[in-house]
Amino acid sequence: GIFLAAHFTASTTMAFNSLIHILRDVNFGWLMQNIHANGASMFFLCIYMHIGRGIYYGSYLYKKTWNIGILLLLLTMATAFMGYVLP
Q: Where does the record place the Cytochrome b/b6 N-terminal region profile domain (predicted)?
């Protein structure tokens, strides 16, 4: 994300142009963008597997720990949504 942000322009008129610049003109920019997008998907896959393991082993019985985990999931989903709506 940091390498992509170095070339990204956060204005409403130049956002898509800076994305095209990253994909076409920056050396291996297309690769960095794909790794970033697929890495985020893999991160959520790991989170869902972790939740599934918690359900399987009955970790939801520890209410405080479970609720903190759900809160972290919701915050992560909100952060991912904000990253998704960027061009």
A: 1-87
